[in-house]
Amino acid sequence: MIIIESLNKDKHRRLGFACGKEPLDRFLQEHAHQAVAKNLSKTYVAVDESDETVILGYYTVTPCRIEPGELPRDVARMMKVPELELPASLVARLAVSESVKGRGVGSLMLMDAMARCARVAAEIGGVAIVVDALEESVVPFYARVGFKRFEPDALKMFIPMATVREMLGISHQQRQAG
Fold first, then answer.
1. Number of C-alpha atoms within 13 angstroms, CB side, residue 138?
2. The CATH number of the domain where 104 resides is what?
3. In this predicted model, what pLDDT tens digit does every residue of 58-108 receive, in sequence order?
4. Mean pLDDT across 19-33
5. Residue whose C-alpha is closest to residue 130's, from 78, 93, 80
6. Domain that holds residue 36
7. N or C: less crowded end of the chain, CB within 10 Å?
8. Are 53 and 13 in contact (CB under 8 A)?
């Protein structure tokens, strides 16, 4: 069974992680723990319960903002948000070890990240989740879940928080109860 938990430098073997994308590998190996320690972002890792030291994948989340006019106009109207700076959550990095690619670990981590962001938004506010796809080949992975591009050819994508809550079955009452 796969477990998703906070990165722990004393438990998880970061140096053994390889996803095939050097910037993503380097971030986990050299910078993720420092970013957590400085409260810049939070990194979560996917591990198998049979050996919780081996990182199968990771994602990093942090608050962000959507600049005025950055959301497509029709989406902003549908969401009924003002043309102001808007609070959001950023899934800053998401990577899967080459050893488990194609086994659903990335999808599991993305769903976990979205659920985590929805819980945070219920507490402090937030209208969307934002991702920056590393390259064009990753866009369909996010699009399958419902992320849309900010601009037609952009790698920066978003999904409205209301859509996330609906996908996860979080009702308005549950949101307010927190």
1. 17
2. 3.40.630.30
3. 999 999 999 988 988 888 888 888 888 999 999 999 999 999 999 999 999
4. 96
5. 93
6. 2-177
7. N
8. yes
Terminal alpha carbon distance of the chain: 29
Gap between the Cα atoms of 141 and 139, Å rounded = 5
pTM of the model: 0.91
pLDDT of 178 reads: 46
Number of domains in the chain: 1
Q: Amino acid letter at 115?
A: A
Contact residues for 55 (Cβ-Cβ < 8 A; gap 6+) = 12, 13, 14, 16, 17, 28, 45, 46, 47, 97
